[in-house]
Amino acid sequence: MRIAHLRRIMSLARSIHPGATYLITRRVEQRRCLLRPDSAMTAFIRYAFVMAAQIHEIELHAVCAMSTHFHYVVSDPKGDLPRFLATFHRLVARGVQRIRRWDGAVWNRSQTSIVKLCTREAIVEKIAYTLANPVQAGLVRHAWQWPGFKTSIDDIGKSKIQAERPKGIFDPKNTKWKKSPSLKVTLPPSITRENADAFIADIKLELGNLESAAHAAIPRYKVLGAARARKVRPDSRATSR
């Protein structure tokens, strides 16, 4: 009985491989809209992600912060992914508690989903999936319209995310919390510069296919829209998959 009890309470061991690329998904407790993409929450999440990635030397390829969950595709050069996840998710929980004045649980009790992407095709598919998430959820018609923290296809290998330290949450006297940190949106390690254009073109094609499928399934009049997405009650719960 003791062994069975320990199996229930212990987290599953994670197999982390330095240099690998992963799709990460983390969900909010009870599917509440605590990460609603208003300006304060979006700015906080951007800063928390950039700082956590800098601290743990994580490479970002794509990210989309939805109201009820995160998707992001990253590479982990030094095998520090578990510590990055702990830092980033702890910072987001702290921000939700302060910005939303929330005293309940922030994260779903289930483990963070970590999916290793072993092929070029898998990376293309999951980056497109990450960026298309707001469209597939019926929140906006096109990925670029989502107002939350996100990257775009054209950022990959070309752009930096610029963040600003939120006031009143991080101690400005602590040099750990930089005032204006930035983070490159990089090509995955398995993609060379010579192959970058074809890689980007394949993501654009896949994203277009996902958006077209969503448009066929969701009538335009049922799409929530960016303005309304910013105003949903943070304590409200998503009711559809």
What are the salient characteristics of this protein?
single chain, 241 residues, alpha+beta, 4-stranded antiparallel sheet, 6 helices, 6 strands, 37% helix, 14% strand, disordered N terminus
Over all CA atoms, what is the radius of gyration?
18 Å
Q: Which series of helices and strands comes N to C?
A: HEHEEHEHEEHH
Structural class: alpha+beta
Uncertain residue segments: 1-12
Describe the structure.
It is built from 6 helices and 6 strands; from the N terminus they run H-E-H-E-E-H-E-H-E-E-H-H. It is of the alpha+beta class and 241 residues long. The strands form 2 sheets. It has a 4-stranded antiparallel β-sheet with strand order 2-3-1-4, with helices on both faces. It has a two-stranded antiparallel ribbon with strand order 5-6. Helix 2 packs antiparallel against helix 3 and helix 4 packs parallel to helix 5. The longest helix is centred in the last third of the chain and has 22 residues. The protein starts with a helix and ends in a 12-residue tail after the last helix.
